[in-house]
Amino acid sequence: MNTQPRTRLEQLAIQNSLGPIDFVREFKRQAHALGLDLDVSLSAAKRWMKGDPGKPRDASRQVLEAWFGETIAVLAGPPLYQSRQVTEQELAVNAAHDSVSHAIEAASALDPSALEHLNAAAGAAARAYCITPPLEMLTDLVALRDTIYVQLDRTHKPLQQAELYLLAGQVCGLLSSVSWDLGLLNAAEEQARAAYTYGNIIDHLSLQAWARALQVTAAFWSGYPRRAAKIAAAALDQAPMGTARVRLHSVNARALALIGARGEVRHELDAAATELDRAGNDPFLDEIGGELAFDRARRALCAGASYVALGDGDQAQQEAEAAVALFASIPDDQRWEAGALSAQVDLGAARTIRGDLAGAAAALEPVFRLKPARRTEAIAQRLLTLAQVLGTTRYRGASEAVALGGTIEDFTSISLSRTSMRALPPSS
After folding, report:
1. Which of 99, 106, 243, 371 is most enclosed, with most CB atoms within 10 A?
2. Which band of pLDDT confidence, cut at 50, 70 and 90, is reported for residue 422?
């Protein structure tokens, strides 16, 4: 899909995370705010974005100018940014995206090649999630989702519809993960619910289980661990064996730890370890991989975080050290960086609970080197929880605690959720 804007209007739409379908909806809302009963067709909106002949009429111009605060001449003109030489690599990548988009759009009827392109794009996005900054993922995921929606409108063949619903669920699930990385918990939960609904439509148990696990994660981070545990327990009744259950048991342990259910946490983590021995054969989760997969490193990450929440420094350190080692064994081009650094934070928290502030500072060194564009909400929230421990009576007046707390404050002040406050499009 083309991520290079052709007009100032398209540039602003991309900056506001508006795909064509979302643009049409928002246009109607903006018109209503001006007292106008006006809407725009999807085809007209696409023409405006491209800069094709036939500029918006007077009423539409009024809406666009009020909405974006720029004249129609500017909006219909070229994008506004400092000129930069496009590298040969960028030119080749953009050309490939454009070719795929055109090939899909040109099909007069949905054929296997269109589905092949969409499957390849969705799979690539799942794998790219682990190594790509969230904001870089956002635009492509929204555009891919909208393309899938358009194709759903073009076919009435049940088998093609089922495949497209599966792809829609996959992309909405990825948008849920990106939303959480950006600190947009409500959007994360909405996207997860949408993914579950698509899985329910086609009775796809692996998609349903994955989506429920994403809901569990959003719920306990939102401060509702009991609701999260309830969702996980219900999902486990129908989840396939292997990877789907590993993730559900692991995130359920996180929720139960926040409730203080120590015995149940151990049971869930043991169940996750057992399911790992049966994992690896799920056609959806394991074959696509990336963000859909859930391996021993992620299970150890959940275990470390669970014991941190329970205040068990010894067990937390053991699990966090295992997670750090497991992530380190994964090749750089496949390693989930945010997960690996989250394990480092958990290790720092475990050492803090045990009274080892020097060890905590050492564990956090690679975290503090992370660039702002990669400072996900999970990392920020873990650090803020650690800062609360550093502020307790136990460490009051300790110079190491004060220094570490100040570094955490500086780091989290420019994390993604605090520097990139933008709304994601609705899950539809």
Report:
1. 243
2. very low
Q: CA distances (Å), 340 to each of 13, 221, 331, 332, in order?
A: 33, 19, 12, 11
Q: Residue 337: which residues within 8 A CB-CB, separation 6 or more?
A: 130, 131, 374
From CA 48, how far away is CA 59, in angstroms rounded? Answer: 14
pLDDT band at 75 (very low <50, low <70, confident <90, very high): confident
Any residues with CB less than 8 A from the CB of 400 and at least 6 apart, and which?
357, 358, 361
* pLDDT recorded at residue 76: 85
Check residue 16 and give its pLDDT. Answer: 78
> Which residues are within 8 A (CB) of 363 and not within 5 positions of it... i.e. 6 or more apart?
344, 345, 347, 348, 351
Can you give the pLDDT at residue 418? Answer: 66
d(CA 310, CA 98): 50
Please state, in angstroms and rounded to a whole number, the distance separating the CA atoms of residues 288 and 211: 15
Judged against a pLDDT cut of 90, whether residue 323 lies above it is answered with yes
- Alpha helix ranges (H) inside 222-284: 225-236, 243-259, 262-276
Q: Locate tokens 């080692």: which residue? A: 325
pTM of the model: 0.75
Q: What confidence score (pLDDT) does residue 89 get?
A: 53
Neighbours of 334 (CB within 10 A): 12
Dig out the tokens for 240 from the structure: 């396939």
Which pLDDT score, from 0 to 100, does residue 373 have?
A: 85
**Whether residue 67 has pLDDT greater than 70:** yes
SS3 per residue for 182-225 = CCCHHHHHHHHHHHHHHHHHCCCHHHHHHHHHHHHHHHHHCCCH
Q: Is the sign of the CA dihedral 198, 200, 201, 203 positive or negative? A: positive
Q: Is the pLDDT of residue 309 over 80?
A: yes
Structure tokens at 29: 């809302």
d(CA 402, CA 405): 5
Residues 6+ apart with CB under 8 A from 224: none
